[in-house]
Design brief:
Helices cover 7% and strands 18% of the residues. The protein has 263 residues and is mainly beta.
């Protein structure tokens, strides 16, 4: 970790069958040797690079994650390089029953002044990012989730039903560039105690779907807005039935860089 001169893994690493921890963060590693999936005892894999080799059979490094069923912490980098959602799906993240911490990172499209960096193929790149993130659905057991640099316009499918992740305790969205909607139903997660949104310039408003509420409860809703908020929220009477309390465990809420938010 942190060695900027490190840029290539030797093939001999595949012989380390008992390896449990790999950390490539802070290095210049951009690819891995095919066969990394044989290191099935890996528990933590940090800074794992997305890599596509389209020579021959179009092999993707994400394929190597399929057999790593013991992972507890996975940090994926360079997801903008995934050529298709089908290759992202080969990672089979949803089936990893031990995965507690998941970090998903695309290259940021925000400039230093907080504006969105455009390219000639922006629509095509957005659509690809949407499909890639949709196919990297976490398992229900995930507890800490970070998504960096997502520049898709639409919310990925699994973020539309956050009740599928009842163990989630921590959520961070950073450089959330183009999407106008936050994950749906966060208010009903029983253990969620930390939410941090860092630079989401396309968010104009925060609606009822954040709490997964019916429209009839809108009169009871009280929302506190601000550029940066850290406090305990207890919003009572926001939903019907057994839910009762929205954000029952929330201790930290941060909203930073919400340039389009209309208060």
């Amino acid at each position: 970790m942190g060695c900027r001169n490190f840029h290539q893994l030797p093939d001999s690493i595949l012989k380390l069958q008992n390896m449990r921890f790999l950390d490539f963060r802070g290095t210049r590693l951009t690819s891995i040797p095919p066969g990394m999936g044989k290191l099935e005892n890996l528990v933590n894999m940090l800074g794992f690079p997305t890599y596509l080799d389209d020579r021959g059979h179009a092999w993707s490094s994400l394929e190597e994650l399929r057999s790593l069923s013991n992972l507890k912490w996975l940090d994926l980098r360079g997801l903008e390089l995934a050529s298709s959602g089908s290759m992202a799906a080969t990672a089979m993240l949803n089936s990893k029953k031990h995965l507690k911490i998941l970090d998903l990172t695309f290259a940021s499209r925000l400039t230093d002044n907080g504006m969105i960096e455009g390219t000639s193929n922006v629509i095509e790149e957005q659509e690809r990012a949407e499909v890639v993130l949709s196919n990297l659905c976490p398992p229900p057991c995930v507890e800490c989730l970070t998504v960096n640099g997502y520049f898709g316009y639409r919310l990925p499918r699994w973020m539309r039903t956050m009740s599928d992740f009842p163990s989630l305790r921590r959520l961070e969205l950073k450089d959330y560039v183009c999407c106008k909607q936050l994950p749906v139903g966060l208010g009903q997660l029983p253990f969620l105690d930390y939410i941090w949104i860092d630079h989401a310039p396309s968010i104009v408003s925060i609606g009822h779907d954040l709490l997964f509420l019916s429209s009839s409860s809108a009169d009871d809703q009280k929302v506190t807005t601000g550029t940066r908020i850290t406090r305990k929220l207890q919003l009572h009477g926001l939903s019907r039935g057994d839910a009762g309390v929205a954000f029952p465990k929330l201790e930290t809420l941060g909203l930073k860089g919400m340039l389009g938010w209309r208060v």
